[in-house]
Amino acid sequence: MTPAQKNEVKLKRGHLKQQKSEMNSLWCSALYKLSIANKYKDDIFWFPHNLDFRGRTYPCPPHFNHLGDDVTRSILCFAKGKPLGKKGLDWLKIHLINLTGLKKRSSNKERLAYADYLLPEILDSADHPMDGNRWWQASDEPWQTLAACKEIANAVRSPDVEKYICHYPVHQDGSCNGLQHYAALGRDKAGAESVNLFPFEAPKDVYSDVAELVEKVRLIDAANGDEIAQVLEGFVRRKVIKQTVMTTVYGVTRYGARYQILRQLKDIPEFPEKYQWKASHYLTEATFSCLQQMFTSTKMIQDWFTECADIISKTCNKPVEWVTPLDLPVLQPYFKQKTVNLKGITKLSAEFDRPDKPNSQKQKNGFPPNYIHSLDSVHMMLTALYCWRAGITYVSVHDCYWTHPCDVDIMNKICREQFIALHSQPILEDLSKFMLERFGNIPDDLTLRALLKECLSRVPTKGNIKLCYESYSSVQIKLVFILP
């Protein structure tokens, strides 16, 4: 064998070893989760939760919880069941179609009609999951889809559908929640339309919207003779750029985004391997450019967050901190580390945080996503409080809210009302005032103090668009952006 052939064999061997290790890890994880589920299958249990420093909630049990994977979510049910009522079965069917990912841009009415059309396949999946047509296996979330098929089959075969006691949770998920908060903070009309903060008959899908913009850019470049743009014909897909769009608001770098897109291109068997790296670079630049066109205020607000954090951590030598609209104090725990050698029978080296020395790079990069996460947690907490007052069961996975099918309309109303209530407050102005009071007088140097105050007081403008809302029915509150 030539040296090149030996090197190729070595690379393949390493790849196969990695695959074997990953599969073994997945196998052990699945067995562990299923053993926990089997242990508690006849019991009622609770998930105690923990708050992280931003206010986000996470269940304490690490291996089996509702934040888990598709299999874990598919076998979790509410301990207390409720009758489906008049619209419960409809919401079960809509939830099933949402899980499949087949009708992202269709209205709820169209999704319900599609579920009725697929009812024979749904019943076949419920009755013969492994030896039937296996329609459920083509879903984005196959195991949750199978669970929904079984619940719908039980409901439609019951003597009285409205009185059928259902334990199955229905999910209502945010449309790229980070971008929703940025669009609301900046009163960004074009961005608000893309993330469903504007009233449309059919929902918008921001990932598809960005993919369409990227495709327009690709067509122009391909016509001008760009080789990579020509190779990418037919491959600018929603799934390829979705993760990058989702994580842009949480501070993903171009380097990280490039690897996200590269992984998606590698999962497409027909895409030529030799162009994967260059194509990922091309799509990364095009995606970031199109996002800036759609969300004009987002970049401005992100830059202000970053500049404030940079000056606070470097000039004041302090970690960035703020208070959420629910009065939760937040302090970013990013500090420089020192290494200490412990001498004894054996030598140990340990790292410790130095609370007097903030890590300015992490403080700067972490502030924009952490602040949006803290707003996300405030909206979730407000929704939870008002759902509790309304007497409905409620579970959250950050921006994805769960409840009984019969209570979805009530939860939808509460969710929208609390989002509007949150963003009707002067959030950025209050943040600026807090940081000026907290950090404005710390530097000894008058020039630095003036620079800090100028930065903190320069709140990104919201233009002349104001926030309001209109009630279209007793259960539907929509966020509307109108010009005064």
From TrEMBL:
<dbReference type="GO" id="GO:0034245">
    <property type="term" value="C:mitochondrial DNA-directed RNA polymerase complex"/>
</dbReference>
<keyword id="KW-0809">Transit peptide</keyword>
<comment type="function">
    <text>DNA-dependent RNA polymerase catalyzes the transcription of DNA into RNA using the four ribonucleoside triphosphates as substrates.</text>
</comment>
<keyword id="KW-0804">Transcription</keyword>
<dbReference type="GO" id="GO:0006390">
    <property type="term" value="P:mitochondrial transcription"/>
</dbReference>
<keyword id="KW-0808">Transferase</keyword>
<dbReference type="InterPro" id="IPR002092">
    <property type="entry name" value="DNA-dir_Rpol_phage-type"/>
</dbReference>
<dbReference type="Pfam" id="PF00940">
    <property type="entry name" value="RNA_pol"/>
</dbReference>
<keyword id="KW-0548">Nucleotidyltransferase</keyword>
<comment type="similarity">
    <text>Belongs to the phage and mitochondrial RNA polymerase family.</text>
</comment>
<protein>
    <recommendedName>
        <fullName>DNA-directed RNA polymerase</fullName>
        <ecNumber>2.7.7.6</ecNumber>
    </recommendedName>
</protein>
<dbReference type="InterPro" id="IPR046950">
    <property type="entry name" value="DNA-dir_Rpol_C_phage-type"/>
</dbReference>
<feature type="domain" description="DNA-directed RNA polymerase C-terminal">
    <location>
        <begin position="82"/>
        <end position="441"/>
    </location>
</feature>
<dbReference type="GO" id="GO:0003899">
    <property type="term" value="F:DNA-directed RNA polymerase activity"/>
</dbReference>
<dbReference type="InterPro" id="IPR043502">
    <property type="entry name" value="DNA/RNA_pol_sf"/>
</dbReference>
<dbReference type="GO" id="GO:0001018">
    <property type="term" value="F:mitochondrial promoter sequence-specific DNA binding"/>
</dbReference>
<keyword id="KW-0240">DNA-directed RNA polymerase</keyword>
